[in-house]
């Protein structure tokens, strides 16, 4: 009776079709049904039914579990698989093929067959070999090395300000965002399958462009900004004066890039007279400016997927996002704590 209850439970809950079929065969036999009746109902051979019943009598419930043999052995060995991944990671030109600059699965397959690397292989098998070998289809990225001879000194100065902001001052990251022109912008959104949102196509850029001058206060995590028609040193000084008024009595440490308005003599003179330190990034190192990540979020959530028809409409959308973001802002801490830049003793001149 106990075996019967267990077989019935397996028949209700088993997810493996082999285990389920074998349990039903044994249960029907225990209920007194003849082999021909079981074969007719289960659509299996009489030998299969007898083998299952005899195996259950000999080994019990262990006989219900399938014994997978592992399938056919691999035709393409491990050494050939590694070679395929190596060839895929190199350019066709390095293999003497100058007609194209990158591999497709079809071209790589043809090359492997022509060179006798494999006797036969399908594109799907090739795709699986590359996936198992950790080789994926990726876009090329660019790397612009800094030419600043004082790169490490400047980088460590900025990292030190991020990690240990002065007690009597504020660290503020300054940068420009834009140009803000009026155009349909691609973006992503949840939509019914096969029904993407459509935006108009246009080659016109009416109404000119505008520029956002922004400042990220690391103490509060809030962004302060201005949107202006130009981004000259006069517009920059307007923003800096507002920051100076906001925090009187505190020394301001302004992290910014080497854009010419930032280095204007009037800006330097104003900083000297108003207890402001200008901390310049190394050349070609905008990624060290903490505000860049905020610009990425601004573009993704506010501009991508939009088609504003006036600057007033677009500026209002940016203002709404900044208000939403500042209401949830937190102090900025922990800049690139696990990044290799923390251990650099020299600046790499090319991408790793």
TrEMBL record:
Q: Which GO terms describe its molecular function?
A: nucleic acid binding
Matching Pfam families = DDE_3, HTH_32
Annotated ranges, domain Tc1-like transposase DDE: 170-304
Task: Supply the Gene3D superfamilies for this chain.
Answer: Ribonuclease H-like superfamily/Ribonuclease H (3.30.420.10)
Highest taxon of the lineage:
Bacteria
Which protein, by its recorded name, is this?
IS630 family transposase
């Amino acid at each position: 009776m106990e075996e019967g209850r267990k077989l019935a439970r397996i028949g209700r809950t088993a997810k493996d079709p082999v285990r389920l079929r074998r349990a039903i065969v044994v249960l029907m036999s225990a209920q007194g049904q003849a082999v021909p009746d079981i074969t007719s109902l289960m659509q299996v051979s009489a030998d299969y039914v007898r083998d299952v019943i005899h195996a259950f009598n000999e080994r019990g419930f262990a006989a219900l579990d399938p014994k997978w043999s592992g399938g056919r052995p691999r035709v393409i060995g491990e050494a050939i698989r590694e070679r395929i991944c190596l060839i895929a990671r190199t350019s066709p030109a390095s293999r003497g093929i100058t007609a194209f600059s990158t591999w497709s699965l079809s071209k790589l397959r043809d090359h492997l067959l022509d060179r006798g690397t494999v006797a036969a292989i399908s594109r799907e098998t090739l795709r699986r070999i590359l996936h198992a070998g950790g080789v994926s289809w990726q876009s090329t990225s660019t790397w612009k090395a800094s030419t600043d001879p004082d790169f490490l000194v400047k980088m460590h100065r900025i990292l030190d300000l991020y990690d240990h902001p002065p007690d009597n001052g504020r660290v503020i990251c300054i940068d420009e965002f834009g140009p803000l022109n009026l155009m349909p912008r691609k973006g992503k959104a949840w939509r019914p399958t096969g029904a993407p949102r459509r935006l108009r196509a246009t080659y016109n850029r009416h109404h000119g462009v505008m520029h956002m001058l922004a400042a990220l206060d690391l103490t509060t995590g809030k962004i302060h900004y201005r949107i202006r028609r130009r981004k000259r040193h006069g517009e920059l000084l307007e923003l800096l004066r507002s920051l100076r008024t906001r925090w009187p009595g505190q020394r301001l440490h302004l992290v910014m890039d080497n854009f010419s308005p930032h280095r204007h003599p009037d800006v330097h003179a104003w900083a000297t007279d108003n207890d402001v330190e200008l901390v310049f990034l190394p050349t070609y190192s905008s990624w060290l400016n903490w505000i860049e990540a905020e610009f990425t979020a601004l573009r993704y959530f506010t501009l991508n997927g939009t088609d504003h028809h006036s600057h007033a409409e677009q500026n209002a959308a940016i203002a709404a996002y900044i208000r939403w973001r500042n209401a949830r802002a937190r102090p900025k801490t922990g800049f690139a704590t696990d990044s290799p830049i923390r251990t650099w003793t020299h600046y790499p001149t090319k991408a790793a």
